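Allow me, if you will, to draw on your knowledge of protein folds for a short while. I have a record of one protein: its chain in single-letter code and its fold written as discrete structure tokens. I should value your view on which stretches of the chain appear to form regular backbone elements. Thank you for your consideration; the sequence and its tokens are set out here:
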Amino acid sequence: MSETDNDAGDFRIGWEEWVSLPSLGLPALRAKIDTGARTSALHAFDIEAFGPPSAPKVRFAIHPIPGRDDVTIPCSANVIDRREVTSSNGESEWRYVIQTELSLGDHHWPIEITLTNRTQMSYRMLLGRQALRDDMIITPSHRFCQPQKTYDVYHSAAVKAAAPTRALRIAVLSREETNYSTRRLVEEGEKRGHVVEVIDTTRCYMAINKLSPEVHYDGKRLARYDAIIPRIGASITPYGTAVVRQFETIGTYCVNPSDGITASRDKLHAHQILAGQRIGMPATAFAASPKDTANLIGLVGSAPLIVKLLESTQGKGVVLAETRKAAESVIDAFRGLKANFLVQQFVKEANGEDIRCLVIGGRVVASMKRSAAEGEFRSNLHRGGQAASVRITKVERDTAVRAARAFRLNMAGVDLLRSDDGPKVLEVNSSPGFEGIEKASRKNIAALLYDDIEKRVRPTPARRRAGTATVSDASNEAG
């Protein structure tokens, strides 16, 4: 309760008040009103600037409750300035300056505030004279002239749900910066206020040690990212997944895990995983010895049948053998090249069509039917196939979700065939393209992915490691 009565129309404050900074997700802070200080200050740690020089942002974390390091609020804001601030003990410090809305009682107005580590201070926020309004009446002998708050709000589900979406720093691992999917990820991320950087996977290199594993790029250690979106090409799967694994070691959220990417790329391994989860697929056989060719063909039925390289992609390395003799010739040719391949049942009733289901965050968000070009059995869009929106059944939807979950992929393109005995999974793609399915479904796939990323990214930043550069937290003003 206030220690003094307010006259009607007076905006009276004491030397200590409860305030909130709603745009930063801080509903309750005890602030000291200090007319002797010119600038306002907010407690912050893990301070890191990011984004282009023309529109810099800063992200930081706050322990809003003094003495409670277990309660951490991650924040981000646009940088409006960087100033040298001299504390009351004469020490100077360069600080980032942000603008945010301040709420005090029933009053709301924008203020400029500097970021600094106030861990040793009694107050997480200092309100300097630049932030004070002309209509305020300050009573230095009183405290809490405005309604009081409580720190219990930080444990409220409603407050957590209403927390603002902070700007994220996201890396897209891709060698093709102009690729449609990569461009869409950058465009959509920046539209949502995030900073999205395209990183060429092959130019990353790794420092591997037990204390501080790091990823380096073009001679510099990469900054801490909130999330990684892997777009690993088939030709660099081993190295690309090693880079993803390094980010996982650091603790960065990766949309798709390295082991899921690796398993989905190896067709034999992928089919073994699907079989282990009892997920329908065309009958498949694999053998290493040339003596087993006849038996290999017999395991999947009669011709026509499919002969497929284990690391085929976009329909490349997939051959339709229309007769048994043709199948034997293709198998012999692949063995002569020392290529690893598998033999698979040809599903005639699919009529050269398959269904691409895009799974994000454990649900099918879009689907399309791909039809092969005339004279072609492969329906891949890269092979001239045509795409159209399609309505899928509950069984097809469940099959696609189960297939993505089998590889622990948060984003996957699951290709299904419609057969007489239910949907059969052809492939699970860990780097599905966006162009065809966005046009066919008329859905913003990139936005749906960011919806999932924003929900999944850990709310608390990773613990600062030794050697990480941050704004100095050594100098704080008194109070």
Observations:
- The mean pLDDT is 84.
